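F.,

This is the one I mentioned.
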């Protein structure tokens, strides 16, 4: 009988009666208990976190920031209630602590009383960190504690982000304010620079002006010194003038009494005399034109007489003759012995000089007579006496020469004419005023008295002026010293303003550059930037072939588990080796296939039932549905062949080995955590057992991805299947020989 028919006969046994049919149904549905129930129990636990009761304690008292009341704790509580994480139950601190202890609350979150104050301190002088207090109890549930770490990390990040947004918003507002103030400062610096340039120019002008002022003040100092000295002289002169005018006034006042009667008596005579003088001056002026000729004749005649006397003197006295008391041998004076340096006679003396000159010849003649013969008294002139006569003649000749030289000059005659004209005019005026001389004297006396009074006033004013100029000289000296110091200060000021102008220019440039570098954000830009600064690092978690929920992620682990358990249960009800085939002496291959095919068929049915429930019942979505079903058929064929071999080879002990092998596969397959996180023993087992490849292949079939892990798993499963069937055939061949161990087994189940 062929193996498929033997397998069919084996399955027909489960159609006879209710109990066998119930057993068959149990074999088909039992994998659902491991696969569907396990996955259903934690299909999407994170979607139901809002069912977990968590105590929320808000002790925050709020804080005042920039005059505004803020309560970060209240905001956080509202956000927590609006989230889908946990069943937040507000309570007291004591109740929260007790509830976590007795299990009413899985966790507690406490917002401390100073939370707002510490969060707000970020913009103050002493920033502090606001701490949220979380209390958990692993005795209630360890996984909840692990989940809470992720949840509270997000809560803390959200609270920190909000606080940071507020802080950075104030910073960016400050930036805008700083930008505006810096721009204003830059404009002010521009104005300052312009003002300093003007001030520098003014300082230069001030320096130059003070230099000029210093020169002027020096001159003023010298001038006031001269004025002070002159005022001293003026004071002395004015004092002398006052004394003189006083004497004049005293004299005039004394004489006026005597003069008035004389003038009153002789007014007519004075008038006549004045008119005579006027006529005489006009006559002289008229005869002045004849004066040069007369002066020339007089010069000639006096020179002749002087020369004659000189010769006479030389003839009589140079030959040893003596006369009178003269000494013999005394040389006669030459004509050059005259005194040419004698002063010229005044013009008014010119007529009389001319008269004297005209009489000079007579004088010379007389001298000659005296020298040569006795005079009246009968005595002869001596040489010294003659010498005096010669000298007188020489003086007369020289005087005549000077007079002639004077009158020969037309300018001198013009001056003399003007003087005579002036004299005539004044004489006429005197003649006209002669009848009024008494009145004029009275007027003159009054004027002299007024002059005396004014002279005394001038003297007193000169004294006051001298004193004031002394003070002015002292002030001018102080002014000169002060202006000198001001000049030095202006020089320093000019140099300082030069540096200040350079610095103010750099300041203005720096402020403009700084204003351009300081950002100025509007509200939209501030919101955008505060969001980035509050949460500067964003995790862009891109998932390749993402599993939509927790159950989908664990399905590759629980599905092979359920299929292994299904094969294990099936061989608890079915014989791994068909006894009829063994008794008939069939080949080992036919015996192995006859025992494997019924369970393999049941396994395929288990796959269909399990995947139907998972897909339509729980909502498992598979990236490659058909591939997944085909792969699971191969998986169940492999698992049933391995379980068959273990049961066939080791008998009742094989069931224990099947269970042990299941445990080893579950722990080394990497179905929950990556295998690298497991101890080294399981890392060694991982590539040696088929479930490791099944889990890896199902992940790529359900969630998607590369297919090479699937093909690799298929090859491994085929190898395990063929190997297990070959070993089962070998075992069946051996089972056809009865031994004492088979007749009396050491253990039976």
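My design for it:
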């Amino acid at each position: 009988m062929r193996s498929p028919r033997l397998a069919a006969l084996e399955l027909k046994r489960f159609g006879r009666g209710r109990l066998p049919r119930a057993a068959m149904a149990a074999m088909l549905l039992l994998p659902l208990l491991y696969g569907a129930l396990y996955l259903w129990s934690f299909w999407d636990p994170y979607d139901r976190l809002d069912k977990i009761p968590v105590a929320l304690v808000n002790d925050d008292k709020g804080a005042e920031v920039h005059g505004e009341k803020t309560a970060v704790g209240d905001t956080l509580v509202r956000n927590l209630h609006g989230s889908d994480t946990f069943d937040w139950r507000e309570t007291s601190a004591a109740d929260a602590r007790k509830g976590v202890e007795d299990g009413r609350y899985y966790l507690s979150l406490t917002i401390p009383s100073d939370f707002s104050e510490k969060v707000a301190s970020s913009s103050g002088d002493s920033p502090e960190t606001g701490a949220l207090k979380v209390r958990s109890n692993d005795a209630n549930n360890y996984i909840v504690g692990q989940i809470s770490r992720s949840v509270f990390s997000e809560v803390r990040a959200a609270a920190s982000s909000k606080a940071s947004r507020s802080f950075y918003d104030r910073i960016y507002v400050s930036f805008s304010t700083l930008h505006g103030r810096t721009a204003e400062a830059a404009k002010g610096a521009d104005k300052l620079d312009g003002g300093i340039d003007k001030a520098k120019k003014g300082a230069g002008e001030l320096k130059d002006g003070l230099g000029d002022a210093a020169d002027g003040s020096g001159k003023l100092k010298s001038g006031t010194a001269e004025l002070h000295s002159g005022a001293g002289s003026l004071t002395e002169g004015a004092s002398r003038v006052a004394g003189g005018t006083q004497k004049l006034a005293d004299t005039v006042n004394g004489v006026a009494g005597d003069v008035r009667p004389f003038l009153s008596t002789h007014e007519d005579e004075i008038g006549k005399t004045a008119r005579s003088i006027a006529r005489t001056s006009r006559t002289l002026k008229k005869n002045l034109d004849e004066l040069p000729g007369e002066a020339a004749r007089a010069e000639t005649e006096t020179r002749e007489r002087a020369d004659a006397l000189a010769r006479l003197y030389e003839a009589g006295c140079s030959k040893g003759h003596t006369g009178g008391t003269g000494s013999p041998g005394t040389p006669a004076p030459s004509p050059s012995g005259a005194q040419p340096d004698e002063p010229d006679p005044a013009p008014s003396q010119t007529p009389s000089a001319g008269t004297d000159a005209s009489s000079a010849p007579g004088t010379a003649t007389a001298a000659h007579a005296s020298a040569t013969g006795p005079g009246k008294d009968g005595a002869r002139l001596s040489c010294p006496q003659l010498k005096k006569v010669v000298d007188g003649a020489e003086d007369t000749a020289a005087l005549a020469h000077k007079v002639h030289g004077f009158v020969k000059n037309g300018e001198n005659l013009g001056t003399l004419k003007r003087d005579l004209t002036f004299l005539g005019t004044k004489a006429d005026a005197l003649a006209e005023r002669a009848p009024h001389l008494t009145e004029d004297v009275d007027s003159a006396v009054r004027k002299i008295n007024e002059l005396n009074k004014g002279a005394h006033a001038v003297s007193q004013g000169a004294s006051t002026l001298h004193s004031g100029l002394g003070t002015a000289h002292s002030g001018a000296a102080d002014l000169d010293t002060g202006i000198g110091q001001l000049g030095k200060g202006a020089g320093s000021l000019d140099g300082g303003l030069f540096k200040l102008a350079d610095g103010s220019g750099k300041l203005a440039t720096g402020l403009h550059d700084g204003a351009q570098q300081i950002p100025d954000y509007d509200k939209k830009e501030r919101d955008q930037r505060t969001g980035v600064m509050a949460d500067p690092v964003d995790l862009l978690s891109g998932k390749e072939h993402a599993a939509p929920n927790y159950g989908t992620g664990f399905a590759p682990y629980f599905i092979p588990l359920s299929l292994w358990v299904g094969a294990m249960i099936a061989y608890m009800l079915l014989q791994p080796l068909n006894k009829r085939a063994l008794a008939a002496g069939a080949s080992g291959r036919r015996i192995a296939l006859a025992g494997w095919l019924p369970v393999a068929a049941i396994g395929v049915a288990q796959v269909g039932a399990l995947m139907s429930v998972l897909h339509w019942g729980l909502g498992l979505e598979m990236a490659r549905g058909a591939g997944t079903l085909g792969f699971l058929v191969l998986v169940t064929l492999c698992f049933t062949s391995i379980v068959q071999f273990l049961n066939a080879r080791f008998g009742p002990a094989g069931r224990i080995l099947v269970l042990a092998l299941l445990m080893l596969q579950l722990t080394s397959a990497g179905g929950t955590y990556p295998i690298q996180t497991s101890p080294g023993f399981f890392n060694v087992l991982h590539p040696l057992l088929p479930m490791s490849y099944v889990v890896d292949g199902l992940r790529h079939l359900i969630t998607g991805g590369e297919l090479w892990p699937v093909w690799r798993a298929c090859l491994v499963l085929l190898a395990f299947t063929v190997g297990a069937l070959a070993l089962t055939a070998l075992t069946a061949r051996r089972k056809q020989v009865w031994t004492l161990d088979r007749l009396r087994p050491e253990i039976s189940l």
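The radius of gyration is 78 Å.

Talk soon.
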